[in-house]
Amino acid sequence: MIEAHQLCKSYETPGETIRVLQDLDLTLADGETASIVGPSGSGKSTLLNLLGALDRPTSGSIAIGGQDISTLTTEQAAAFRNHQLGFVFQQHHLLPQLTVLENVLVPRLAGDWQESAASTESRARDLLQQVGLGERLDHLPWQLSGGEKLRTAVARALVNQPKLILADEPTGSLDPASTDTVADLLLQLNREQGVTLLVVTHNAALASRMSKTFELRNGRLSPRITAH
Ligand SMILES: Nc1ncnc2c1ncn2[C@@H]1O[C@H](COP(=O)(O)OP(=O)(O)OP(=O)(O)O)[C@@H](O)[C@H]1O
Ligand SMILES: [Mg+2]
Predict the structure, then answer these.
(1) Is the Cβ atom of 46 under 6 angstroms away from ligand 1?
(2) Residue 158 contacts by C-beta under 8 Å, 6 or more apart in sequence?
(3) Does any domain span residue 9?
(4) Number of domains present in the structure of the chain
(5) How many whole angstroms separate alpha carbon 61 and alpha carbon 104?
(6) Does pTM top 0.70 for this prediction?
(7) Over the stretch 133-185, which tens digit does the pLDDT of each residue have?
(8) What is the rounded (10 degree) CA torsion for 167, 168, 173, 176?
(9) What is the domain range of residue 89?
(10) Is residue 138 in some structural domain?
């Protein structure tokens, strides 16, 4: 599902080049689950942005589902994200003028969508029910708590039935019970539909529920042995 080789990413700022990722390799098989931990500023979000074709590496190659994503045009990258990926952002980026249900349906507006509107809406309602927001469908984002916004963003990432979910701190502002709900939902999709999961988190409990854990340090990943 993910083949990243010799990835380097530097940011140019006035007077300084910040080298964030250096010769990073990552392989994840179809249907695997993995977490990435590491100190703040170590480059975890940078790495997810590259894997999600939101940004380009300085050098190195990335294939997702066998497709080389480093050569995609902006439009192709948008279509790739819409069809293959569920992305949960560290800042959840809900659209303020849309309700919870409408926010979850946003991915449907982009790209060519084969499914009927009614089927997508019924799945969106089910997902919102599963993350505990069945009673909040018509709320606007400002009428939600931080954790409810995050759970809305999780539902939105799942509505297009992605093969790969990239999640950046998907439980950042959640209490332990809601953290478990989100983790349960992601792992259920993995078990039942074979969705591949890559989760960045500072939460040790969430990290340990994935079958592999990597640590990002000094620009590279190293495996961490997790006890089960
Ligand atoms: N657009 C940018 N321009 C310049 N520097 C950047 C840019 N984006 C990120 N950085 C720097 O790159 C480093 C890695 O940032 P990144 O957001 O990937 O860290 P992170 O591991 O996700 O941290 P956190 O756990 O706090 O979310 C940081 O030092 C950050 O300041
Ligand atoms: Mg980050």
Answers:
(1) yes
(2) 86, 127, 165, 185, 189
(3) no
(4) 1
(5) 32
(6) yes
(7) 999 999 999 999 888 998 999 999 999 999 999 999 888 878 888 888 889 88
(8) 50
(9) 30-56+72-224
(10) yes
